[in-house]
Amino acid sequence: MHLNQFYHIECELLGGLNDGMSVAEKYIMNLASVLLENHGDLIRETAGHTEHITQLLELYKSGGRNLPRITLDEALTLPEIQSTEGTWHYTIADDPTKGRTLTRTGERILIKTFRGTVWLTEMDHLSVPFYQAFVPGSQHSKALCADLLLGPGEVLGLGQRHVDVQSVQEALKMHKVLEENYRWYMDIRDEGKGGKSLLTTGWGMGMERFICWILGHDDVRNVAIIPRLKGMRFLP
Predict the structure, then answer these.
(1) Residue 119 burial (CB < 10 Å; 0-12/13-18/19+)?
(2) What gap in Å lies between CA 162 and CA 180, rounded to an integer?
(3) Which one of 89, 112, 194, 213 has the minimum C-beta count within 10 Å?
(4) pLDDT of residue 1
(5) Cα dihedral angle (33, 37, 40, 41), rounded to 10 degrees?
(6) What sign has the CA pseudo-torsion 68, 71, 74, 75?
(7) Quick check: 19 pLDDT over 80?
(8) What is the largest CA-CA distance in the chain?
């Protein structure tokens, strides 16, 4: 579920997918620890407990300061995913070539299977934005991206970017996106036009979704921090 306009914590960094996932995990663990320490009583009053926070922190610690990971292909082979109706669908219903995606039902099965949270990685490339890098050896069929599933579902989305202009061009062609609309983006990676080949990764965390998880709430519409509607001004 999305709000009309929601708030994101955004991060762009030098490094690959694993670097981005590590930074995101450290950020979330620090945030969860501080909220538990400073506002534990309020969270207990609202959510009824704080076990979900301590469980996350323990899962991270027991995993060697890494959260569990599973690829989309691996997830689709899990018995409970296969035996439960409505756990995934084609991104475009009448076109299987555009890739597959898990539904909220499928995400919640993974969350339960992995004791509260898991990274879902390597989505079908045509089901994600063109700027996600290709998984090496996948013949451009998979993306170097990851969704962190926590509480209500996807809370954080992350992806490694294409390193060079040639990869950007290949992705635009594959996704049938006009190059002229993204000439500026190509120039960023084109060393012949003053750009630079760089290994970068970016992620964004939905603040309202994270707050839903912290407070044990199931409706993101009730936790909007400040309304954001086009054409209207709101003051805190």
Answers:
(1) buried
(2) 18
(3) 194
(4) 47
(5) 180
(6) positive
(7) yes
(8) 59
Alpha-helical segments (H) within the chain: 17-47, 51-62, 72-75, 79-83, 104-113, 165-174, 183-189, 207-215
Instruction: Give the tokens for residue 112.
Output: 């339960």
d(CA 168, CA 166): 5
Please state the pTM of the whole predicted model. 0.93
Taking only the tens place, the pLDDT of each residue in 61-112 is 999 999 999 999 999 999 999 999 999 999 999 899 999 999 999 999 999 9
The strand pairing partners of 148, in sequence order, are 119, 156
Residue 159, CA distances (Å) to 16, 199, 217 in order: 9, 11, 27
For 84, list phi and psi in degrees, rounded to 5: -105, 130
- Vertex 183, ends 194 and 198: CA angle to 5°? 50
Amino acid at 155: V
